[in-house]
Amino acid sequence: MQYQSTRGQTDSMTFTDAGLTGLAPDGGLLIPAAIPDVSDRLADWADLSYAELAFEVFKRFTDISEAALLELVDRAYATFLHSEIAPCVKVGDRYVLELFHGPTLAFKDMAMQFLAQFFEYTLEKRDQHLNILGSTSGDTGSAAIHGVRGKSRINIFMMHPDGRTSPIQALQMTSVLDDNVYNLAVKGTFDDCQHIMKSLFADRDFKAKYRLGAVNSVNWVRVMAQIVYYLHAGMRVMRETGADSVQFSVPTGNFGNILAGYYASRMGLPVKKLILATNENDILTRFFQSGIYESGKVSHTISPSMDIQVASNFERYLHVLLDGDCAAVVAAMEAFRATGKVDLSGQRSHPAFQLFASERVDTARTVSTIQAVHRDHGYILDPHTAVGVAAGDTLRAPEVPLICLATAHPAKFTDAIREAIGIVPTHPILDALADAPTRCDKLPADEASIRRYLAEKLQPEHSPC
Question: Is residue 341 a contact partner of residue 292, using CB atoms and an 8 Å limit?
Fold first, then answer.
């Protein structure tokens, strides 16, 4: 499988090179040259364990030997606390796909644990080192840090918006004191962090000099790994219910999670509808309701991982909507960069557009959903998952099983849960962080400051690279 840039100005490359590169040199996002059709294999795969299914999916996208890939998959999912890895739980008349049983209790672990194994294996094989530069609105940072902490060939520099994650999300990152981990609290928004990261990756000389790599969902390996849980849950629910299709409701801000669901449908999973749920930061809802993609001001909410106004994975979807016309993608992204707006209303009849429905769920409705689900079913939703449940209940297609993605354990958002239902959820992993020492550097939200910081820390005396 070869990989190409959405902007068409980068030579095609292998899976391994794409994973190490992260963002394409031309500023685009790397995508596979073709999406494999596995519709004739779904019946055979329905009884596979999660790790077995992951192996079957990954081997269709990678250039890693099957023996090595099997070992990487086994190591990645051995870190999860539930025997099913991603159990699908019936809650009322919907299913909740629990993606929070990994080491940092968030769905980002589902991909990040494999990505960390991929990095370690590839760097050892090539005798190379890598400096990861990432940005996070909360969960990506801790998942990435916990995946690569202590690894001798990797340094990780993770930017997060200062004061705009939950306290526990921040603690999960800043309490990791390994020498190869650098936490940067940026005085701005997540979108500021994303902009800085993409600007530095676009500087080819700087990226090459400091061997920068990505763990955000701009890295194709992340999206590929997330395809698995759509296939796994979809096949299980269809078998249990006798349905011939399923629909998913996904809380999202960066478009990477639900994009994996789109690729699962392209691979052959019968998906009736992908319901995209946003909070007050509703750039994606506004897009799917109007066809106009236009950024706005970031609002701070009780679902902070979704407090995003520029979705970094949108370009992959744009490439689909524009039928692979790379020049049109470049023109659209340039228009968005210049004006903060691009009109794609002409693509609303495209099948890839029609598959999606979207709704904005504000904070009041998020809270009322947490309250109702707990009252009626004794189940506690984290605020992000509650956004997805609320939108899913409204937009679901009748008679088709609804699967709502649970993206984080509620114990990561104790303040919001306490205010909603008067309960403080706990988890042993988080309890162990009480009074933990922390380390973090605070920096202004400008590219020059981050550039200087990286250059200083990556001098020979600071880095094995």
Answer: yes
